[in-house]
Please model this.
Amino acid sequence: MVQRDAGERRIVILTGAGISKESGLDTFRCADGIWSRVNLEDVATPEGFSRNPELVHDFYNARRAKLGDPAVVPNAGHHALARMEREWPGDVLLVTQNIDDLHERAGSSNLMHMHGELNKARCAACEQVVSWTMDLSVSDACERCGSVGRMRPHVVWFGEMPLAMDVIYDALNRCDLFMSIGTSGNVYPAAGFVSHVRMYTRAHTVQLNLEPTSGSTMFAETVLGPATDVVPAYVERILSRGW
Ligand code: APR
Model:
């Protein structure tokens, strides 16, 4: 097989809650994770929002406030991925399941938030998406259509279609390296990206995670450890030697 040079080699990186853990944000499925305290059907489904919008707003308002805490900043893992995008001569697409903004604060720009963004709100009546860093409530009005009580967090709930899937699958179909970082691999479609890449490309696949996951055997390579250690080390390796 003819090796393409680095300038033509494409990298797709998937991140999950684990990369933001050392920045002070909770994961979902760790022993102390969000879903150990909160019922996901209540706060992360369209049905939960219909039943009790105040509860859903309280949940995301608290997470938005936490994200605004000055102590919550990008860590060495986020910075290393921004460095990868700056220094790798080929395309680097970062796909995150996270709704925090720590990747962009670290400097990543070719970034897809497939599960939406905490600092945005959307009108369920007219679909207008707006920047939203304050609390959101049932009395807020849409600035575009004027509907009251239809503003919702711009996040993808269980049962809803993740965002930008056409762009993401296009990049997966053409990638040469697929990296999965800090995700338990429990939620589809992201959990299926590694098998998709293996089926349709000859890409190298690597998982970087604190601990093995049920999908670890799908990856050609697994590196275990905290994201602030293993991500900068892996990025350094790729930039100096490739894979
Ligand atoms: N460094 C690296 N990995 C870590 C760290 C760390 N410091 N801390 C925890 N992890 C790993 C955990 O071992 C776990 O495998 O991160 C993973 C986090 O998994 P989840 O909590 O399931 O988070 P995620 O995979 O992002 O969840 C996917 O589920 O409910 C939803 O919509 C939500 O986007 C989220 C989706």
Remarks:
- The chain has a mean pLDDT of 96.
- The beta strands are 11-15, 92-96, 111-113, 116-123, 129-131, 151-155, 177-181, 204-209, 221-224.
- The CA atoms of residues 124 and 150 lie 5 Å apart.
- Residues 53-67 form the longest helix (15 residues).
